[in-house]
C-alpha cells in the first residue's frame, strides 16, 4: 500500500509539473499566435481598427483565462490553511492598530464570500474582535482580491499590482481604524450583540496534500466556471475600446488634468458590482487610451470593494448611520488613493 | 428519522448544498426530513461563520463549501 501510495504521489507530482510546463509554453506563444491568427489567417489589414480589435481579443482572452486558472488553483490551495474560525481566533482580543493590520492581511487569504458577510460579522464582534478590526477584515476581504491582483500583474506588471495590493491594504487598515475611533458600537443592530456564539463550528479539517490539491481543482471549477463569461465579455469591451476609441480620447475626461474624474469614477463605481475578472480588461483598455492610473484604480476598487448588494446584506446587522459611515470612509479612502496616484505619477 | 438542515441565506451555493444533501439522503434510503434555514438569528444559533452549512440532527457537519454527494452521504449517516 505504502509503495503504491508513494508511486501515485510521485506520478501526481510529475503530472503537475508537466501541466505547469505546458501552461508556460502555451502562455509564451500567445502573442505570436494572436498576430498570426489576425493578420495571416484572417488576413485583416495591419494597423486597421478591426485588426487591432481582433488581435487584442485573440491575445488577451486565452492569456487572462490561463492566468486565472493558475492563480485560482494556487489560492484555492492556500485557502485550505485559513478558515474563518482560525482567523477569528487570531484576531480575538487583539488591540486596535495591530489588530487592524492583521485583519486586513488575513482578509486577503481567508476564504470569503459575500453571502457569509453577515454571519462572519456577527461571529467576529460577538467573540470580542473590536468593531474597527472587524471592518478592516470586511473591507480587505472583497477589495484586495487575488484574482484582481494576478490579472493586474499579468497585464500591467508588478508595479501596478503592488500599488493595488499596498493601497488596498492601507485603505482597509485606515478605514477600520477610523471606524473603531468613532465608537459606533451602538449603531450595530441590537440583536447582534445578544447573539451567543462560540467556537462551536466543526473542527478545522486536517487535510493531506491530495485533499488540498483537490480543493484547488474545485476552486478552479467553481470560480473559473462562474466568471469566464464575464472575462470574455470584459475583454470584448476592452478590445472594442482598444481598436476603435482614438488614442488619448480618455485623456481629456479621465486624464490627470481632470481631477474631478476621480470622485466621479468612485461615485459611478460604488453602486456597481462586477467581479474583478470582468472589470480588469476594461481597465486595461481605458489605461491604454490615456486614462490616468489613479482614476482607473479608484474606479476598479470601488466596483469590486463596495456594492449595492453588499449594502443591502449588511443593513441586516448595521444601522443606517454605521452603514453610511462604512461606505463613506471606504469611498473617501479610495478617492484619496486615486488623487494621490494622479498627483504622484 | 434524520433531520437535515441547510443553513444559508439563499445564495447559489446554498441551493446547491440543499440539492446535494437531498440526493445523498435519498441514496441512503433511510427516512429523512430536509429543511432550509434562512433566518439569520436561527442560523447564528448554530454558531457557524461560513455559508452554506450542513446540519444533521442538530450537529453542524460542514460549513463554507458544497461537498460531493459521496461526502455528503458520509456526513449524513
Describe the structure.
The complex is a heterodimer of chains A (345) and B (77). Chain A is an all-alpha fold and 345 residues long. Chain A contains 16 helices and no strands. Chain A has a domain at 80-203 and 240-344. The longest helix of chain A is centred in the N-terminal third of the chain and has 40 residues, at 2-41. Chain A is flat, with a radius of gyration of 22 Å. With 77 residues, chain B is α+β, with helices and mostly antiparallel strands. Chain B has one domain (2-66): Glutaredoxin (3-Layer(aba) Sandwich), CATH 3.40.30.10. Chain B is 39% helix and 27% strand. Chain B contains three helices and four strands. Chain B has helices at residues 12-28, 40-44, 69-76; strands spanning 2-7, 32-37, 53-56, 59-63. Chain B has a four-stranded mixed β-sheet with strand order 2-1-3-4. In chain B, helix 1 (12-28) packs across helix 3 (69-76). Chain B is globular and about 30 Å long. Chains A and B meet through helix 3 and helix 5 of A and helix 2 and strand 4 of B.
What is the chain-wise order of helices and strands of chain B?
A: EHEHEEH
What fraction, in percent, of the residue positions of chain A are helical? over 70%
Number of helices of chain A: 16
- The unreliable regions of chain B are none
Q: What is the domain total for the residues of chain B? A: 1
The overall strand count of chain B is: 4
| Backbone shape of chain A | flat
In short:
Chain A has a domain at 80-203 and 240-344.
How would you describe this structure in keywords?
heterodimer; A: 345 residues; mainly alpha; 16 helices; 76% helix; flat; B: 77 residues; alpha+beta; Glutaredoxin; four-stranded mixed beta sheet; 3 helices; 39% helix; 27% strand
Amino acid at each position: 500500500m505504502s509503495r503504491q501510495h508513494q508511486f501515485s504521489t510521485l506520478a501526481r507530482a510529475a503530472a503537475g509539473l508537466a501541466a505547469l510546463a505546458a501552461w508556460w509554453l502555451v502562455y509564451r506563444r500567445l502573442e505570436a499566435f494572436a498576430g498570426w491568427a489576425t493578420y495571416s489567417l484572417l488576413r485583416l489589414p495591419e494597423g486597421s481598427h478591426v485588426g487591432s480589435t481582433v488581435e487584442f481579443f485573440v491575445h488577451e482572452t486565452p492569456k487572462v483565462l490561463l492566468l486565472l486558472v493558475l492563480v485560482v488553483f494556487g489560492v484555492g490551495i492556500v485557502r485550505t490553511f485559513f478558515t474563518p474560525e482560525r482567523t477569528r481566533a487570531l484576531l480575538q482580543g487583539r488591540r486596535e492598530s495591530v489588530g487592524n493590520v492583521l485583519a486586513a492581511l488575513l482578509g486577503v487569504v481567508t476564504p470569503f464570500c459575500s453571502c457569509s458577510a453577515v454571519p462572519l460579522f456577527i461571529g467576529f464582534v460577538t467573540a470580542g474582535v473590536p468593531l474597527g478590526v472587524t471592518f478592516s477584515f470586511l473591507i480587505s476581504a472583497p477589495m484586495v482580491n487575488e484574482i484582481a491582483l494576478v490579472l493586474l500583474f499579468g497585464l500591467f506588471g508588478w508595479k501596478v499590482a503592488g500599488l493595488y495590493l499596498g493601497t488596498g491594504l492601507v485603505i482597509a487598515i485606515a478605514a477600520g481604524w477610523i471606524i473603531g475611533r468613532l465608537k459606533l458600537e451602538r449603531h450595530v443592530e441590537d440583536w447582534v450583540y445578544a447573539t451567543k456564539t462560540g467556537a462551536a463550528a466543526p473542527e478545522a479539517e486536517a487535510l493531506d496534500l491530495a485533499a488540498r490539491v483537490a480543493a484547488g481543482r474545485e476552486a478552479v471549477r467553481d470560480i473559473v466556471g462562474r466568471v469566464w463569461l464575464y472575462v470574455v465579455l470584459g475583454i470584448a469591451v476592452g478590445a472594442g475600446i482598444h481598436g476603435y476609441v482614438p488614442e488619448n480620447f480618455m485623456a481629456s475626461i479621465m486624464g490627470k488634468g481632470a481631477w474631478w474624474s476621480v470622485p466621479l469614477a468612485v461615485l459611478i463605481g460604488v453602486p456597481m458590482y462586477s467581479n474583478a475578472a470582468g472589470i480588469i480588461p476594461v481597465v486595461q483598455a481605458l489605461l491604454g487610451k490615456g486614462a490616468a492610473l489613479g482614476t482607473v484604480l479608484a474606479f476598479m476598487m470601488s466596483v469590486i470593494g463596495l456594492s449595492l448588494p453588499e449594502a443591502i446584506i449588511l443593513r441586516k446587522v448595521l444601522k443606517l448611520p454605521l452603514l453610511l459611515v462604512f461606505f463613506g470612509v471606504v469611498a473617501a479612502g479610495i478617492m484619496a488613493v486615486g488623487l494621490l496616484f494622479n498627483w504622484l505619477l | 428519522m434524520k433531520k437535515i438542515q441547510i443553513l444559508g441565506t439563499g445564495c447559489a451555493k446554498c441551493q446547491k448544498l440543499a440539492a446535494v444533501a437531498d440526493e445523498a439522503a435519498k441514496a441512503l434510503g433511510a427516512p429523512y426530513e430536509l429543511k432550509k434555514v434562512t433566518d439569520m438569528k436561527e442560523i447564528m444559533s448554530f454558531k457557524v461563520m461560513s455559508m452554506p452549512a450542513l446540519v444533521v440532527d442538530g450537529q453542524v457537519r460542514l460549513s463554507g463549501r458544497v461537498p460531493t454527494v459521496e461526502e455528503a452521504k458520509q456526513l449524513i449517516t
